Amino acid sequence: MPALNTAKLRSIEIRTKRLVSDVMVGQYRSIFRGQGMDFDEVREYQPGDEVRNIDWNVTARLNQPFVKQFVEERELTVMLLVDISASGRFGSGDQTKQELAGEVAAALAFVAQRNNDKVGLTLFSDHVEKYVRPGKGQRHVLRVVRDILHHTPAHRTGDLRHALQHLQKTFRRRAVMIVISDFLDPLPHSALHRAQRRHDVVAIQINDPHEDALPPLGRLVLEDAETGEVGELHLRTKEDREAFAAHRAEVQAELVKEFGGLNIDHIRLVTGQPYAPALSHFFRTRLERRR
């Protein structure tokens, strides 16, 4: 991502922290589970308790059955995978897709920090451009946020497959993996399937309004930000524009279907629109599904 001056970076930090409300943290805590179970205490055996939970040492010492009681471990590891390929530089308004992606990632990092969870980061194009091991605390989270907002990509094209393969080799513990991308490239189904089997994968799609519907601009000469290829698009008539919008709707519907087939939760955000309500709605609906 293009380097940001210190004032703008500080502004983003303040804005995202302000958006991280107690409500959002509570919703986040409710829908993402911990790594396993922690031992809590020993209590007397009751009919219906699992025999495998009997603490035989205490039972022998007190001459009556006692069982171990466990509680769900609350600490999570959140791994942010942020697409920094060249297509993210597009923005038809005051905000580019990369700027929105960076702000959303920052907000999620602060939510995780408020819940005392570990946060890690993978910035990817068609290579893994930066990897930050999961850590805790405000200093670590601020470092993650600065890396997201400051990093200048070395490559133009994007390929999520390389990032997932890298994490498959280097990151063994179960985590919440949040992939933030415009998902304009074909999904790497095999790599996503393997990741979903081990982790809780969430896809956050970042789009610009003009990627779905274009104004009556006539003949357009467009350059692919990632490949440099140039093409023409004709939008002289209402029928041309409607055909373009219909095609984009079909592409989006197919993407949603693909995520559903992979059992991956999907959120779509659009530049120039508030993202906090959409994240809160996702947390709320996911919690309702779990119940």
Question: Helical region count?
Answer: 9
**Unreliably modeled segments:** none
Number of strands: 10
The residue-averaged pLDDT reads 83
How does CATH name the architecture of the largest domain?
A: 3-Layer(aba) Sandwich
What is the spatial order of strands in the main beta sheet? 5-4-3-6-7-10
SSE run: HHEHEEHEEHHEHEEEHEH
Keywords:
291 residues; Rossmann fold; six-stranded mixed sheet; 9 helices; 42% helix
Fold and architecture overview:
The protein has 291 residues and is an alpha/beta fold. It folds into 2 domains: 6-31 and 75-290, von Willebrand factor, type A domain (Rossmann fold, 3-Layer(aba) Sandwich); 37-72, no CATH class. Helix content is 42%, strand content 24%. The chain is built from 9 helices and 10 strands. It has helices at 6-19, 22-31, 56-62, 97-114, 138-150, 160-170, 189-198, 238-261, 276-290, and strands at residues 37-44, 66-72, 77-83, 118-124, 128-135, 176-181, 200-207, 218-223, 230-235, 265-270. Strands 5-4-3-6-7-10 form a 6-stranded mixed β-sheet, with helices on both faces. The longest helix is centred in the last third of the chain and has 24 residues, at 238-261. The protein is elongated, with a radius of gyration of 23 Å. The mean pLDDT is 83.
